[in-house]
Structures are given as C-alpha cells and as structure tokens.
Amino acid sequence: MRIVIAEDDALLREGLALLLRAEGLDVVATTDAPAPFLDAVEEHKPDIAIIDVRMPPTHTDEGIVAAVEARRRRPGLAVLVLSAYVEQAFATELLAHGSARLGYLLKERVGRVEEFLTALHRVAGGGTAIDPEVIGQLLARTRPDSTLDRLSPREIDVLALMAEGLGNTAIAEKLFVTEGAVQKHIRRIFAKLDLPPDDRADRRVTAVLRYLDLGR
C-alpha cells in the first residue's frame, strides 16, 4: 500500500510515517502543506492519502479542500482525514462528494494502533471509517425535535455503526444480533428517514449523511 501523509505537526507526521513503515506499508512522501501534498499525490499516485484538516496558511479547512481536490484530480483515491476536534461541517462536506474510500478520524485514534490500522485498511479497501467519537458527539448535539426521534434506540445504534463504515455482518457481531435482524433495522431506518429505493443514490450513504447532518 502506497501512502502520502500531509500533516504540519512534524512530530505527528514523522511518527505516523515510522508507525506505517514498521507495519510494512510504503510511505512514499510526507508533506506539511496542501500544495506539496497535491504535488506528491500527482507524482507518486498513492493508494491512500492521510491528511490533517487544519493546515497552513490559515489552519482552517485547507486539508479538506486539498482532499477534495486530490480526489478530483485522482478519482478513486482513498483519503483518511485526521482532526484534533469533532468538526461536523468538514465531515459532512467531505462525505457529500461520495463516501467510498473515505475516512474521518480524531488524531487521538492514531495512538490506538490496531483501531487506526483497521480504519486505514478499510478505507484503502473501498470502505468508509468515521470515528465513533465523532458520531457520539454529533448525536449529543442533535436537536430534541430532530429526525432521530423517529428512530428506536437500537436503530440509532445500527445507524451509528453504519456511519463508522461497518457492513451488516460486522454490525450484527457488534450488537450480538443476527444479520437478518440488522437488515430489518436498516429497512426501518430507510422508511423512517423517508428514503425510498432509488437507483441514483446509495441509501446507506444517504442515511449516514442525513445522520451526520443532524448536528447542524
């Protein structure tokens, strides 16, 4: 797996590179700003890019903008975004461009090496990985009269795990229920969120985006 890292904190950047190389992964470039990151993506054609949300010069949304641009230039590029805080607007902005091969993790997750590597491989393999803490904080911010009131506690659990990028089998294992039960919950979620079958959109992605958007 070929990886480009964009992180302006030198200690975290080099620490990530050492960690990934120790796992036998090929870190082909490390950068500290959006412009050299985009150059590295074009030059090295990585399988996945790891990028910080807040980067120079303004330390606001440069990382998100660079991630979206990198995927525009190189369709199908897997991107794992790191953030020090829960920044819901940035998470939904990134996912709005399509959720396949995308991840959004808090930086503290890097210290939990096994979880971080699992998320990295999931995103590189075509999946989605949203940090459980991001999901939990967004849920806590949800308005009392939000659409989530339509969902049962178990349906919220299922939707949260969908947002993390888990498939039906993994959700069933997490919740200690059958895969058939998970499928029933998902059908009810789609119905309660007014998501009829639509060939033009992936209802799982739409449901997750609706869920993440509730914190606004």
TrEMBL record:
Superkingdom field: Bacteria
Question: What does the record give under GO molecular function?
Answer: DNA binding
Start and end residues of each HTH luxR-type domain: 144-215
Keyword list (alphabetical) reads: DNA-binding, Phosphoprotein, Transcription, Transcription regulation
- SUPFAM superfamilies found in the cross-reference section: C-terminal effector domain of the bipartite response regulators, CheY-like
Which Pfam family, an example, fits this chain? Response_reg
* Entries under InterPro entries matching the protein: CheY-like_superfamily, NreC/VraR/RcsB-like_REC, Sig_transdc_resp-reg_C-effctor, Sig_transdc_resp-reg_receiver, Tscrpt_reg_LuxR_C, WalR-like
Modified sites of kind 4-aspartylphosphate? D52
Domain (Response regulatory): give its ranges.
Answer: 2-122
Q: Which PANTHER family match?
A: TRANSCRIPTIONAL REGULATORY PROTEIN NARL-RELATED (PTHR43214:SF24), TWO-COMPONENT RESPONSE REGULATOR (PTHR43214)
Recorded protein name is: DNA-binding response regulator
Q: What is the lineage of its organism?
A: Bacteria, Bacillati, Actinomycetota, Actinomycetes, Micromonosporales
